[in-house]
Design brief:
Blueprint: H1 9-21, H2 24-32, H3 42-65, H4 76-83, H5 89-100, H6 107-112
Helix pairs in contact: 1-2, 1-3, 2-3
Length: 115
């Protein structure tokens, strides 16, 4: 992907979808792309900042509970990925452990949370 600069809309939209599903690695990927600075206005920067804050919160949770801790196990996309063996049993166990913790938040709540 060297030298390629992408526009905002499809990639940030995909990052928000991934965040709502709790797919942290996908959010990291989409937000690491080299965005065209001509597309980064105040609104876009706010959305990028929101995703950055989400990544920091999610990383802290995964540091405590392990990879996959914030997965939305009730979402049909996630359940299909589990059934297909794409998401590991360890990730599912980590997500269940986090969900059982007293301070757990869903991935969408983490995305919308304002400290």
């Amino acid at each position: 992907m060297t030298g390629v600069i992408v526009t905002f809309d499809p990639y940030i939209g995909a990052a928000f979808i991934a965040a709502r599903l709790g797919q942290l690695s996908s959010v990291r990927y989409f937000t690491s792309l080299p965005f065209d600075p001509d597309y980064i206005d105040d609104e876009v920067q706010e959305r990028l900042d929101q995703l950055s804050a989400f990544v920091k919160r999610a990383e802290a949770i995964e540091a405590d509970f392990g990879p996959g801790a914030i997965l939305d196990l009730d979402h049909e996309e996630i359940t299909q990925l589990i059934a297909d063996g794409v998401i590991s049993g360890e990730d599912v166990r980590n997500a269940n452990a986090y969900r059982a913790s007293p301070k757990s938040m869903t991935a969408p709540q983490l995305l919308e949370f304002r400290a």
